Amino acid sequence: MRVDLFDFDLPEGRIAERPAVPRDSARLLHVGAGGLEDLKISDLPTLLRPRDTLVLNDTRVIPARLLGMRGVVPIEFLLHRRIAPDAWQGFAKPGKRLKTGQTVEFPEGLTGEVVAKDAALVILRFNRAGEALTQIFDRVGHVPLPPYIRRADDAGDRSDYQTMHAAKPGAVAAPTAGLHMTPALVAALYARGVARTHVTLHVGAGTFLPVNVDDTKDHVMHAEWGEIGVAAAAELAATKPRGGRIVAVGTTSLRLMESAAADDGAIAPFSGETSLFITPGYRFKTADMLLTNFHLPRSTLFMLVCAFAGMERAQAAYAHAIKEGYRFYSYGDACLFERAA
Q1: Upper half-sphere CA count for residue 293 (Cβ side, 13 Å)
Q2: Which residues contact 162 (CB under 8 A, 6 or more apart)?
Q3: Which of 170, 206, 212, 278 is 20 to 30 A away from residue 91, measured at CA?
Q4: 285: containing domain
Q5: What is the number of domains present in the chain?
Q6: How does pLDDT run across 273-292, given as a tens digit for each residue?
């Protein structure tokens, strides 16, 4: 499909710089069979039914933006994917002049040797490994705010850019729909009889990359590691037989379920990488509803939304959100889509 079909004009200042306080006070656009409904995230329990299952991504964001030096040249290295206990693949800036064998120096004596390059991606082998490497990332790394948030990260982002259910370190971008969850909202969903389960998809830095081709068939998705455990697979398998609906919280949860699902929609335990790229025409096998933030034009995330909701309905929802002043992207508002028939 032509990428320009997913373009739209986003007015200046619509990308949220900070989250709503409290998180569940953010706006929620419900996109259902009855049309569009302007609500709050705290209204979510009224839109779900007893026996529905909410699927949450429990990945934990690591401080993945490292600032170092190669000689006198500043180097920014954005972690993307761990490939060994002491080695990470990532995006270096500037990266064109980095050569295999060169060393980048980071604070606290951390160094990374360039061991491979592949287009925009660079592999650094660090002088620490395992938990020791994770700990030094925690101390010297910066919160990997999306490039669309044009400010430096600060202490508040350490908690703001993390979901309340984050448990498994490895993501370099937050599963942003999950940022809206609060203890009060979880309690209200439980009282409503809505079940929830957790899956893990370690979101990579590739989620920030723009689609720079003219046709979607030419875009390459970067692989991300995910896991659906035995308990989560069992809960998902039980949802529809008991009369419930599967509600994906975020595009990451949805992509992972679709990657693991058989043709008949059955979801077995899964562990491995996925580079699934979903565009209109894709036939969904798992989720009935999708809770997701508002995404940027020409992004793979907006393409997935158009596939799930239908092009016309998704575009109408976004036009309404722009007209009504909804806030976009990671710290912004959300929409709840019912799957197109």
Answers
A1: 28
A2: 60, 61, 174, 179
A3: 278
A4: 3-61+160-338
A5: 2
A6: 999 999 999 999 999 999 99
Contact of 106 with 67, CB cutoff 8 Å = yes
Give the pairing of strands 103-105 and 289-293. Answer: unpaired
Given a cut of 80, whether residue 36 has pLDDT beyond it is yes
Q: Is residue 328 part of a domain?
A: yes
Tell me how crowded residue 165 is: count the other CB atoms within 10 A of its CB.
Answer: 17
For 278, the token pair is 């979903």
**168 and 304 belong to one structural domain:** yes
Considering the entire predicted model, what is its pTM? 0.93
Residue 280 falls inside a structural domain: yes
What's the pLDDT at 97?
81
The sign of the torsion formed by the CA atoms of 65, 16, 309, 42 equals: positive
Rounded Cα distance between 217 and 239, Å, is 34
Q: How remote is the C-alpha of 146 from its chain's centroid?
A: 11
Number of H helices, E strands in the chain: 8, 17
**Are the beta carbons of 148 and 299 closer than 8 angstroms?**
no
Residue 89 CA to residue 77 CA, distance in Å, equals 9
